[in-house]
Amino acid sequence: MIPVLHIDQFDNPKNLSEVYANDLSAHLQKNKDLVYTAHKHDFYLVVYFSKGAGVHEIDFNRFPIYPGSLFFLQPGQTHLWKFTEAPEGLLFFHTKEFFEWGFNHVKTDEFPFYSWNGNPPFMQLHKEERPKVQSLFMEIYQEYSNDRSLKEQKLRSLLHLLYIDLSRLYTSRDDHQLIASTTYLSTLKRLNESIHENFRQHKSVSYYAEQLHITAKHLNRITASTLGKTPSDLIYEHILLEAKRQLVHSNATLSAIATDLGFDDNSYFSKVFVRRVGVTPSAFRKSYKSG
């Protein structure tokens, strides 16, 4: 099974169990036994690289690491670092509850890098953008490291300000799509949550349309106009992502994986995998582990 890391596994000052900040080099060195194999988190993670090179693999998508690279990870994503040059930078973690507790109307998934709309969990900052962003990261780290009154309130405010600035930079990129309709975006979020909870048991579009109290035709219209995909595409993306995770990060048999994903017929699972991935499950596992 893929390990799931919790904030309390990392050194935290007393009474700060839902937020963490650190110098990147120090964090990686101190937690090398935890972070250099594929793993998940149950918290949000943002990391800024001021130096270094390599590849960051997030759910089988590979992103290059350069000075100025920023990554945004949500709970449940599987990721893996592969460095070719020593990294430097800053990072922070926080739970959904820690951030949202201090705001009445601000939700974490409203920020574009956390919204479920196909946007990448990555942004490369231009040189002129880096000093301000790095300064904000440093302010968060310094506030976290010092023992002052109203510490949690200050950290929430600093996180919020940084997220606002990063959202403005993120949405300025041509390759980061925006969904103008707040109604459609809300529907997509609820669809994603429902698929995540139910994809093992339910694979039909009609089931999810019913859960959202809309017709299957309207659901298809929403996903097509916003993401260029069908609802069925989204359902099977969840299924195949979990299949890939189990294939490469566990020793489970193909039959066991098919059963866990709700397929009664192992051969049908293999056909679905081949049709949508292009290779058999066994070939995918072998290729990844040899590559």
Automatic annotation (TrEMBL):
Signal sequence range: none
Classification via SMART domains: HTH_ARAC (SM00342)
Keyword Nucleus assigned: no
Keyword DNA-binding assigned: yes
Keywords: DNA-binding, Transcription, Transcription regulation
Gene3D superfamilies for the chain: Homeodomain-like, Jelly Rolls
InterPro entries: AraC-bd, Homeodomain-like_sf, HTH-like, HTH_AraC, RmlC-like_jellyroll, Tscrpt_reg_AraC-type_HTH
UniProt domain HTH araC/xylS-type: residue ranges: 189-287
Highest rank taxon of the organism: Bacteria
UniProt-recorded name of the protein: Helix-turn-helix domain-containing protein
Provenance organism: Euzebyella saccharophila
